[in-house]
């Protein structure tokens, strides 16, 4: 059985558009759950989504627990051995309080890639496969979140290209979620139940397309 760690923010946690972090789609509705069903019984999928999670930044309001880099290493060690780590982060880095351009958000993703490679939590101490997923762009209308994400809408459209550049340079896999789904208009940046389903199905195909050695 191969194991996959899905490391992300509220859109991996399954937060409902327009709701709170406690308003969450069910396990089989969230994209990791859909992906698990599509892949079949030979795959073990681990969900690690946290609302508000950043790539590498301590949140001055919500605390350092939102810093993805602080939690990634113990998370990997807890679930090792891991065959594949999927990272879908970046949206929260665009909050006005961080003042980060898309290129710096991508560098945060690069730090996480380096950490995974350095720890090497794969089978027999190897580096696991790594798949970076760029979140879909935010919509122009993000309702009551405008003051928090002011200016983030335009930046969000540039994340995919920056993520692809960093993924290519560090020789890991990349997928642009915005190529198959859109953010829900209920709040402009979370995913609908339908989007979760679509993403889960597509991500299963991306996982299988990696080209696994069946002898391992």
Can you summarize this structure?
InterPro entries: SGNH_hydro, SGNH_hydro_sf. The chain is α/β, with parallel strands linked by helices and 216 residues long. The chain is built from seven helices and five strands; from the N terminus they run βααβαβαβααβα.
- How many helical elements? 7
The H-and-E topology, N to C, reads as EHHEHEHEHHEH
Which CATH architecture would you pick? 3-Layer(aba) Sandwich
Helix content: 25-40%
Q: Biggest sheet: strands side by side, in what order?
A: 2-1-3-4-5
DSSP summary, beta strand count: 5
CATH top level class name: Alpha Beta
Q: Per the principal axes of the C-alpha atoms, what is the gross shape?
A: globular
Oligomer: single chain
Strand content: 5-15%
The largest sheet is: 5 strands, parallel
Which segments are poorly predicted (pLDDT under 50) over 5 or more consecutive residues? none
Q: For the record, give the distance between the C-alpha atoms at the N and C termini, rounded to a whole number.
A: 10 Å
Report the CATH topology name: Rossmann fold
Organism: Hoeflea poritis
Protein name: SGNH/GDSL hydrolase family protein
Pfam family, one: Lipase_GDSL_2
GO molecular function: hydrolase activity
């Amino acid at each position: 059985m191969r194991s996959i760690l899905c490391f992300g923010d509220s859109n991996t946690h399954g937060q409902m558009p327009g709701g709170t972090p406690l308003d969450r789609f069910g396990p089989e509705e969230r994209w990791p759950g859909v992906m698990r069903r599509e892949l079949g019984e030979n795959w073990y999928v681990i969900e690690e989504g946290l609302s508000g999670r950043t790539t590498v930044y301590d949140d001055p309001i919500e605390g350092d627990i939102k810093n993805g880099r602080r939690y990634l290493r113990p998370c990997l060690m807890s679930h090792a051995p891991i065959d594949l780590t999927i990272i879908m982060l970046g949206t929260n880095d665009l909050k006005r309080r961080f003042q980060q351009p898309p290129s710096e958000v991508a560098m945060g993703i690069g730090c996480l890639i380096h950490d995974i490679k350095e720890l090497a939590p794969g089978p027999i101490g190897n580096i696991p496969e790594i798949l970076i997923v760029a979140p879909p762009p935010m919509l122009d209308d993000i309702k009551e979140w405008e003051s928090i994400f002011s200016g983030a809408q335009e930046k969000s459209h540039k994340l995919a290209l920056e993520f692809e550049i960093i993924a290519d340079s560090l020789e890991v896999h990349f997928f642009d979620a915005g190529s198959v789904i859109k953010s829900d208009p209920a709040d402009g940046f979370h995913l609908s139940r339908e989007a979760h389903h679509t993403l889960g199905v597509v991500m299963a195909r991306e996982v299988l397309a990696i080209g696994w050695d069946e002898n391992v």
